[in-house]
Amino acid sequence: MPRGASTNAPTGLVLSAPSSGSGKTTLTLGLLRALSRRGVDVSGAKSGPDYIDPRFHAAACGRDCPNLDAWAMGPARLHDLARSGAELLLIEGAMGLFDGAPPEGRGATADLARLFGLPVILVVDCARLAHSVAPLVNGFAHHDPGTRVAGVILNHVGSPRHEAMLRASLQDSLIPVLGAVYRQTGLEHPSRHLGLVQAEEHPDLQAYLDRVADVVEAEIDLDALVALAGPLTPSPGASQRLIPPGQRIAVASDKAFAFAYPHIMNDWRTAGAEVIPFSPLADEAPAPDADFIFLPGGYPELHAETLAAARSFKRGMQNATCQIYGECGGYMTLGRAITDKDGHRHEMLGLLALETSFAKRKLHLGYRFLAASEGPFSGQWNAHEFHYATTLLAEGTPLFEATDAEGRALAPMGLINGNVSGSFAHLIDRA
Q1: What is the Cα–Cα distance from 213 to 228, expressed in whole angstroms?
Q2: How confident is the model at residue 184 (pLDDT cuts 50, 70, 90)?
Q3: Structural domains in the chain?
Q4: If you write DSSP's letter for every residue of 353-421 in order, what string do you get?
Q5: Which residues lie below 8 Å from residue 325, measured CB to CB, with a gap of 6+?
Q6: Which residues are CB-contacts of 47 (< 8 A; sequence separation ≥ 6)?
Q7: Which single residue of 99, 122, 304, 369 could bond 346 by disulfide (Cβ 3.0 to 4.6 Å)?
Q8: DSSP 3-20
Q9: pLDDT value at position 191?
Q10: Backbone dihedral region of 4: left (phi > 0), alpha (psi from -120 to 50 degrees) or beta?
Q11: Are 309 and 281 in contact (CB under 8 A)?
Q12: Is pLDDT above 50 for 430?
């Protein structure tokens, strides 16, 4: 499949694992870079609500990486996003193959495999396994008749003797072993409290991706892996795209505000809206003629001192009369202050009666059903919440009524004050 060749039937594979921490992301990046170097027209996709891995995927193969969220998105939307234009799609799963939202596990990586009719390559962390690898792999292979495990990659293998034991145990499983990747240092991602650092923050990203690709090329049978790819099932029809909240949309975009879903930005552009990036960290104000301002999520707490001193940014935001919306980190920035992990308080925009703190962290995590009767995103939404901030103060009119993935009522989310609104939730798609 040389790059640039055309096909009417894109193919794909799903890379999943029995659990988180098995090495899926590292191997996916290595595969994307190694196949791309061979001239294969390949792209990546990420299962679930993830802002960080897709940037690494894009850097590895030179193609945008969509989020494929089987909980928050309908089949038509998922099919539209999966058909990125590449001939081969590698979907990196989240958590374990069958792990999804409570109560029944909806949104699992297996849901994507069934929806697209794609085979699964199971990445198994063998650091603490030997002969027990066989019942583990066979259990996953036979758990769900609609999910086909087509191959296995043995990861974190300790020695040639260890590899021989693992392969011997799997001889009768009829599932091919595509490779054994030995345990080694230097391939792990640097991390922080919300997961990996962002791709643009990696100190030597291209060299890192080439190093992982070298390992993958040496230890995985790439030809056998590509040969297992299957065609995506037909799309059930075109998806309904999101209506842009304005014609000229100013979007904060830098290391503090990097968590904007590409499919939302693309929907706005497709509808004819102009998306105008600006950098609060560079003390840039939003375009003065913007008719909507969006502050996405990110890591404002890591840059709170810089944001507090960004006078042009603050003045431009405080003087804006158009609709302003903030999401998670952007929502916190719209408030009066953010207290960082060391207990230092930094003044923010003061557009909402909101104060947040990271001095005492508390995890808020899960899918959300949201409903708003006013504001720029009125109606019903599927969303996700993931942050460690503690709310010290939140006064005013709530923006969203909220329930969790199990339908249990939650406290109202977010605030709205005139033309300014936001919440901790990341909107994904219309409910």
Answers
A1: 19
A2: confident
A3: 11-231 (3.40.50.300), 248-430 (3.40.50.880)
A4: EEEEESSS---EEEEEEEEESSSTT-EEEEEEEEE-PEEEEEESB--EEEEETT--EEEEE-EEETTEE
A5: 245, 292, 293, 294, 295, 375, 376, 377, 420, 421, 422
A6: 67, 68, 69, 70, 91, 92, 93, 94, 109, 112
A7: 304
A8: TT---SS-EEEEEE-SST
A9: 53
A10: left
A11: no
A12: yes
Give pTM, 2 decimals: 0.93
Structure-block tokens of residue 307: 């944001």
Catalytic residue among 61, 65, 126, 328: 328
Q: Which amino acid is at 62?
A: G
Residue showing tokens 């990445």: 123
Which tokens is 352 given? 């909402």
For the stretch 349-362, pLDDT in tens is 999 999 999 999 99
Degrees, nearest 5: CA angle 287-308-299? 80
User: Any residues with CB less than 8 A from the CB of 24 and at least 6 apart, and which?
Assistant: 15, 16, 17, 92, 93, 123
Buried b (16+ CB within 10 A) or exposed e, 136-149: bbbebbeeeeebbb
Is residue 110 helix, strand or coil?
helix
d(CA 31, CA 332): 37
* CB contact at 8 A, 33 and 60: yes
Place of tokens 């230890």: 219
Report the b/e string of 206-229 with b at 16+ CB within 10 A.
eebbebbbebbbebbebeebbebb
Give yes or no: 328 in active site. yes
Between CA 376 and CA 290 the distance in angstroms is: 14
The pLDDT mean for the chain works out to 94
